[in-house]
Amino acid sequence: MRITLCLIILTVLAYPALSQKNDVAAEAAVQQTIQDFFDAIEKQDTSLFKSTLNLAGQVWVQNRAKKPTQISSRFLKQDIAMLQGEHQYEEKALHYDIKVHKGMAMAWVAYEFWRNGVFSHCGIDAFTLMKIQDQWKIVSLSYSVEISGCDELKTQH
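User: That's the sequence. What structure does it adopt?
Assistant: Structure tokens below.
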């Protein structure tokens, strides 16, 4: 009886540690999907770009650089054409805050955006991802476009 009780107690105590390992692995996989998304933009790699997305997903933009602030939306698949343009883009993640629950994840990512090697703007990317056929896919992205307060974003965690 004592052995059984000890095993039960050890199992209960060990569960949070096992759960944390799974969360860390899931968070790393989500972050890698987002980094692949950024890399695809920089390399203008449409295959890599598509591999990170559910093409039916949506993008919402809060453009705070415009007065008044403009809100717009489009489908993720519409961004594929952007990669085939004449401009060179680079999005640099400043830091990540990722939450995972089973096959769903949210990532809050402060970023800087560079166009043709020149700083363009900063902002927040809010990604929603779903695990689809054992792979994390971006199903929605909301982001802000900001031209002021960029130094503050670098220090927020």
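The CA atoms of residues 53 and 138 lie 5 Å apart.
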